[in-house]
Amino acid sequence: MVLAVLEPLVHRPRIGQVLLGRIVDNHWFGHNRHSVEEKIAVQAVFETLSERSHSRLSRNLRTASFGFFLVLVGIFLVVYPLAEESRAFLADLKPTPIFDHIYYPTPSSPHPALYHILRNFSMIWGVWLGVLTVIQLAIKDHPRRVVHTLGDCVFWIGASYLLEMISIGTLSFGSFVALLIVTTGLSLITRAIAILILEKLRPWS
Questions:
Q1: Other CB atoms within 10 Å distance of the CB of residue 169
Q2: Could you tell me if 49 and 9 are in contact, meaning their C-beta atoms sit under 8 angstroms apart?
Q3: Rounded CA separation 197/20 (Å)
Q4: Assign residue 140 a region: left if phi > 0, alpha if psi is -120 to 50, beta otherwise?
Q5: Cα torsion for 113, 119, 124, 128, to the nearest 10°?
Q6: What is the C-alpha to C-alpha distance for residues 136 and 105, in angstroms, rounded to an integer?
Q7: Whole-angstrom Cα distance, residue 71 to residue 47?
Q8: Are 47 and 16 in contact (CB under 8 A)?
Q9: In the prediction, which pLDDT does 6 show?
């Protein structure tokens, strides 16, 4: 009887959580074996409702993050001559040998304006990912999603620093590419270490 009443609440998590919380806290069940089984069933439904509500919050957060990315790209396209600088950069590429018969494209002249634009974008996006990581920790999001965001944050902050260095002429393009690969590796290491720590401290599902 109780389970039949509770079943529709699975599809209305907000109301279901409040009602089920009152049921459990106020001990609406007796102490016989049948009532104990019903209480266990109620707690299971409560956990299901909480999980669905938490999943919806996490999904909305990812949607908001993607929206922020699109807004940021649009603003940079309007404020900065990103398209023109990108075309000039691509037209300036030429093959440079690494080893015998192995080449990679490098620009024949510096492009500080493009590097500066990309540096600003990387910094803003990296800071946002840092804020997003804190929010995910606060809402107890799935640890793998948290460390994925954290790893991306490390990469974009590192990339912004390298772009700053190449824009002022401290780095050559070849060194920039090599250090960008190193930054990618560091972001992956950060993810691996963070997931071990989070799963040990918080046994989230």
A1: 10
A2: yes
A3: 33
A4: left
A5: 150
A6: 39
A7: 36
A8: no
A9: 47
How far CA 195 is from CA of 5, 68, 143, 154, in Å, comes to: 40, 25, 6, 15
Q: Give residue 32's pLDDT.
A: 52
All structural domains of the chain with their residue ranges? 1-59, 80-205
Tell me how far the alpha carbon of residue 116 is from its chain's centroid.
24
Structure tokens at 176: 């920039």
Contact status, residue 153 vs residue 129, Cβ threshold 8 Å? yes
Structure confidence at residue 116 (pLDDT): 96
Structure token digits, residue 167: 């824009």
- What is the SS3 assignment for 106? strand
Q: Residue 146's closest CA among 131, 136, 135, 156?
A: 136
Phi-psi region of 34 (alpha: psi -120 to 50; beta: other; left: phi over 0): alpha
**H or E element, residue 101:** none
pTM confidence score: 0.71
Q: How far apart are CA 163 and CA 202, in angstroms?
A: 36
* Dist. CA 20–CA 50, nearest whole Å: 11
**What does pLDDT average to over the chain?**
80
